[in-house]
Automatic annotation (TrEMBL):
Protein name: Integral membrane protein
Coiled coil (UniProt feature): none
Transmembrane regions: 111-133
Location within or outside the cell: Membrane
Compositional bias of kind Low complexity: 30-53, 60-72
Amino acid sequence: MSTSRHLVNRRRRLATTPPRTAENGPEPLAGVTAAPATATEPAPPAGRATTTEPGPPAAPATTTEPAPVTETTEGEPDPDGGSDPGDGPGRRAEGGSPDDVPSRRDSRLRITLPAVLCALTVLLGAVAVWAFASASGLRDEPARQNAALTDIAGTSEVKGRISEAVGAVFSYDYASPARSDRAASTYLTGRAVQQHKDMLADVREQAPEQKLVLTTTVTESGVEFLDGDRARLLIFADQSNTRTGKDEETTYAAAMFAVDAVRRGDTWLIAAIDTFTR
């Protein structure tokens, strides 16, 4: 009887106290074989708060390592999409962060802009050198001193005087040869004196026999060069050669030649005659 009461009291104490762990199991009763533990916990006495038996420990959550993200930029397709990622303009260097590595387009701009500025600087420098050299050449070139393009009054004066001189010295009348000689002494100087004699030598020789009358008229003239007291003119003239003998006959010819002129006082003289023949 006492043994049964003791057993009941023991069970009550076990019901009211927390179960022991597996390491510190309950001490076996003297003379009583411990019953095997069942899966069901004995119900607590009435009036006490029930506690929920903690379930089995949850399985540790498996963490999936995120796949590496392939950075793509504008115009660069995903490597899984098919095209070569190196074709994109914004290809970033491998191993660099997006903030540290500029896109290819920015790199091109950074490279191209200095190159363009350098090329423009070189070009402007070359233009400046060429302009300086050209200006220096113009200052030293004699053509810059050509007043034929700027001095209208001087150009008109030399044209009138030389046209008159050419008409006088290249006209000859067999009846008054002295007139031709006076014209030559009035309008010729320097090499032109001998050149004129050589050009009219045949006319002077044949004039008395054929009764020749040579008339020269300047139709047009142009001042090629005018610099102070020196000038060069291009002369266009018509010549008529008339034989007044028994059988009168007139021939016509056109002449073109250049003359170098010099000013002596208030008049212009012919200093050289260029017939463009060698």
